[in-house]
Amino acid sequence: MSDPVKRVLLAKPRGYCAGVDRAVEAVELALEQHGAPVYVRKQIVHNKHVVETLEERGAIFVDETDEVPPGALVVFSAHGVSPAVHAQAAERELRTIDATCPLVTKVHHEAKRFAREDYDILLVGHHGHEEVEGTSGEAPEHIQIVESAEDVGGVTVRDPEKVIWLSQTTLSVDETMQTVHALRERFPALQNPPSDDICYATQNRQVAVKAMAAQCDLVLVVGSTNSSNSVRLVEVALQAGAGASYLIDYAREIDDAWLDGVRTVGLTSGASVPEVLVRGVLDRLAEVGFDSVEEITTAEETLTFSLPRELRPSRASR
After folding, report:
1. Is 131 a catalytic residue?
2. Pure H helices in the chain
3. Domains of the chain
4. What is the pTM of this model?
5. Which residues bind [4Fe-4S] cluster (predicted)?
């Protein structure tokens, strides 16, 4: 009797979203047009491979703008920055390219609008994440960060009738809504954002994982540990019934022990992960008998974003 087939269920959509694609291309074009070095504040996207590849081409990643030489060119990452960072860059006479994801920019605009209207803004997100720091910086006197439903008891507002929630774009949809539900129990008049803050790509990748997780003995998520949306995919896979789930940057990180007794491996990747890393995992799995690959498609993504305005004229002339 032949052995049962070992198979891979490959999630689609996976990998690069439109905002990441735009941000990475922005750094690549800046290097082409201006030459090295090009400074980048924080990681352009949260992926080890992408950052190392751009470093090899002449990008220099820094934590703060005061590390950039006066007058030099700096790219702001896809996660966005606060007005204070823009002001610091102007003081140092830095040339800037803003690669903030347009969906993050949308949340910034929402924060500014509701601060002008004197709302208390409850920002669901993770303390210390660059995106949350950037959004909070738009209206620090109006914004409180709420990490989870457990934090809701400590929230205080000036007027319970004038409260709105916004969110970090890369969270788990389910966990965010649990937090919002707890907030609404405390503040029944809590308003929703004008449009969904959790980005389409984050939601789509979670839906794709949910569609296959229950069939999988193991789900591998390609992504870096500082990538919020990648970490969430591991959690979503486990909650949706996967036997086990692990986050890896590279195929070489797969532990052979994870594959003991496994017949179905689910595979996906976070929104900041290039497809070449997924292909590397597929090759590694094929070496140990997982050579049947079935793509599980739950959505087709066609959205694209135009490049930062600082790069558009040069691009048109290429």
Report:
1. yes
2. 18-34, 48-57, 83-91, 102-116, 130-136, 173-186, 200-213, 228-239, 275-287, 312-316
3. 7-16+200-297 (3.40.1010.20), 18-101 (3.40.50.11270), 103-186 (3.40.1010.20)
4. 0.93
5. 17, 101, 199
